[in-house]
Amino acid sequence: MKFFLLIGLTICLTLPADETTLTLQKAWEMALAENPSEEVALARLQQAEARYQQARSQNHPRLSIQAAGTRIQYSDTQLLRIPGAPDSSELYEAGLNATWLLWDSGVRKNRIAAGGLEAEAALSAQADSRETLLAQVGRAFTAAQLARANLRIAEADMEFQNRQLENSRRKEAAGMDSRTDRLNFEIRKLTSEDTALRQSANYEGAMAALGALLGREVDHPLPQPVSIGGGQASFTEEPIELGDLWHRAQTQLPILQQVRLQEEAARAAGESARARFGPELALFGNLSAEREEDPAFSDGDLGNSVGLQLSWDLWDGNLRRQQVRESDAQVQEAAARSRQVRLQAFAELQQAFTDYQASRKSQTLSATILERSRENRDLIETSFEAGRETLLRLNEAQRDFNNAETRYATARLQRQLSWIELQKATGNLRSQVK
Length: 434
Known about the structure:
Outer membrane efflux proteins (OEP); 4-stranded antiparallel beta sheet; two-stranded antiparallel sheet; 9 helices; about 65% helix
């Protein structure tokens, strides 16, 4: 099964710069620059990278310094034991301690590996967040375009009905038309005005939703979205199959990369938990000074020690065993989620693939219907003016033409929306932003 997939830019992407209109490309750029979700994703990435660096820091030695000054006031009982001793004394101490964990049976190694994988997963999560944002902007932009198209159709219908009403009034004044014809056009003109008002409200609501996604403040309204067919780029396509799309998605879809890395990170964390059953080997050393009554240390007050320590917890009340059990369950959860996401990703791709196929055919059919409806309306209007067609036929022809315009606008934008969803389903939406 084959279809033609877009490889070039879709509607609105190659329009010349115009400050009075908003293109999809410009909307995407604004969202990436202003939407708060980008800041959230970046903050999460920075947190993951910081946790990875925390894990790496365990490879380095630890160095600490301490100092203390103590004044001791002896009790009467203590003074009786030491005849002639002073009532109080002062003790000053200072020290420099160093420790270095040389071996911990692989706990650190696996913890660092898990941290690195989590940081990579966070990077994929940021890319997935960006794909989601771009898709949301694409949907909102398409909705705004459709609302604008519906408003234009309603206004065009209002102009048509007003023109017919003026003609009917002139004919009635000349005794060539009836009052019922004039009332018909008055009713239809008022109805079209009501429709235009509702479509205007829909358009304002769609633009408000789009502005929120683009991070645009209320006092900085957006330009109107580019109209359908107004200098838009034509579709450039190549034959491709669903299997090729799925292969592409597996290599570049961020959510698939994220869950795979999270599963690997969970396995590394599990190995770290198992390694806690082994011994630890650490090197330690310290340099200390101690002096009574006077903090002015000299060489004679200095002492030092260095040593190698082996420690091995033989029994901890079953703590480590339960930690391993917990980490195994986390691995199972990560594996199950990875499989779940993979199945869902394929289902979404298949749906997007099918929708795009249908949208292509729908646009072709709706374009033909619109062309025939316009021709039919114009012919009937001419015949009505000549008295060869009835008012009922003219009303039907205008209604059919309005419906055809609406279907065409919907089909044209549905194809754009289907393309956006298909790009998201393959992880290719980010590459569309210049």
